[in-house]
Amino acid sequence: MRTSLNDIQQIDDYLLQYAGKTDRALFEARLILQPALQENLVWQQKTYDIIREHSRRRLKAEIESVHQHLFTEPAHISFRHKVLGIFLKK
């Protein structure tokens, strides 16, 4: 069965906690009555989890790139010394 755009929107609102209490309660009732909707919710949550993990890895790689640039380039040696000085002071 093809997921309707309305179902996708309601799943998003539910997962992202945009729906109000009444809408959440109605949606949870639909989840009980419609196993296909429950399955779609599970797959949408897995999709969000994959996207979140990918974003974290990408951000971590970007931070590491900036770190390598700032701490290995000769042009940034004074910055490197200032930062290290903060953490090495006793």
Key terms:
90 residues; 4 helices
Overall structural class, as computed from helix and strand content, comes to: mainly alpha
Shape: elongated
Share of helical residues: over 70%
The strand count comes to 0
Number of helices: 4
Q: Could you state the order of secondary-structure elements as H and E?
A: HHHH
Biggest β-sheet description: none
How many domains?
A: 1
Strand content: under 5%
User: What is Rg?
Assistant: 23 Å
Mean pLDDT: 92
Uncertain stretches:
none
Provide an overview of this structure:
82% of the residues lie in helices and 0% in strands. The protein is an all-alpha fold. The protein has one domain (3-88). The chain has 4 helices and no strands. It is elongated. Helix 1 crosses helix 3 and helix 2 (21-33) crosses helix 3.
Give the helix/strand layout:
Layout (H helix, E strand, L loop, with lengths): L4 H11 L5 H13 L1 H38 L4 H12 L2
Helix pairs in contact: 1-3, 2-3
Concise synopsis of the structure shown:
The chain is an all-alpha fold and 90 residues long.
